[in-house]
Write a structure and sequence with these properties.
about 180 residues; mainly alpha; Phosphatidylinositol 3-kinase, Chain A; 10 helices; RHG20 protein; ARHGAP20-like_RhoGAP
Length: about 180
C-alpha cells in the first residue's frame, strides 16, 4: 500500500482527502482480512489511501500509542524546533520497533506528497488534517469539545512531523522506497 501511495500520491490531487469508493473499500478490506491476494495496483489510489487509513485506525491503542497520548499532545508546547524534535525522538524510542518502522515509511510517503503540494494540493497542513485522526486517539472517550481541541493538537504534531521528518527519522527517509 505504502509503495503505491509513494508512487501515485504525489501526483494525485486530494490524496488522503478524497475517500475511496465505500463498497470497493469494504470488499477489499474483507479480502485482505481473510488473507486473500489483492492487487491494489488495479484499484483507485483513493481506495488504497482509504484502506491504509482504515488499517492505521485499527492498530490497537494507535500507532503512536494511546498510553503516550498526553506526552505526544505536549510536544508542540516545547520551546524551539530542536526541543520538539528531541522530545519526538524520545517518544519514538518508547514505541514498539514495528510502529517506528511503519511511521518512517508513512512519513516518507507524506514527505514525498508534501514536496509536490503545488500539484496535488496536499501540503503538510492538509495531510495532517486528513491523517492525524488515524495516528493517535485518547485512551478513553472524551467530550466533543475536548476531542476537537485534541484533534487540533495532534494535527499540529503530524504537520510538524511531516515538515521535519528528515531531521526526525534521518535523511534516508527520502529513499526508503528506492528507485520506483
Amino acid at each position: 500500500m505504502l509503495s503505491l501511495l509513494y508512487q501515485e500520491g504525489p501526483t494525485t490531487e486530494g490524496i488522503f482527502r478524497c475517500p475511496g469508493n465505500a463498497k470497493t473499500c469494504k470488499e477489499l478490506k474483507e479480502k485482505l482480512d481473510s488473507g486473500a491476494e489483492v492487487d491494489l495496483a488495479c484499484e483507485s489510489i483513493f481506495v488504497t489511501a482509504s484502506l491504509f487509513k482504515d488499517f492505521l485506525r485499527n492498530i490497537p491503542g494507535s500507532i503512536l500509542s494511546s498510553q503516550l497520548c498526553d506526552k505526544w499532545v505536549c510536544v508542540m508546547e516545547q520551546g524551539n524546533d530542536e526541543e520538539k524534535i528531541k522530545s519526538i525522538q524520545r517518544l519514538l524510542e518508547q514505541l514498539p520497533r514495528a510502529n517506528v518502522v511503519l511511521l518512517r515509511y508513512l512519513f516518507g510517503v507524506l514527505h514525498g506528497i508534501e514536496m509536490r503540494s503545488e500539484e496535488n494540493r496536499m501540503n503538510a497542513f492538509n495531510l495532517a488534517i486528513c491523517i492525524a485522526p488515524s495516528l493517535l486517539w485518547p485512551p478513553v472517550s472524551t467530550p466533543p469539545d475536548t476531542e476537537s481541541e485534541f484533534t487540533k493538537k495532534i494535527s499540529s504534531l503530524v504537520q510538524f512531523l511531516t515538515e521535519n521528518c528528515c531531521r526526525i527519522f534521518g535523511e534516508e527517509i527520502t529513499s526508503l522506497f528506492g528507485e520506483i
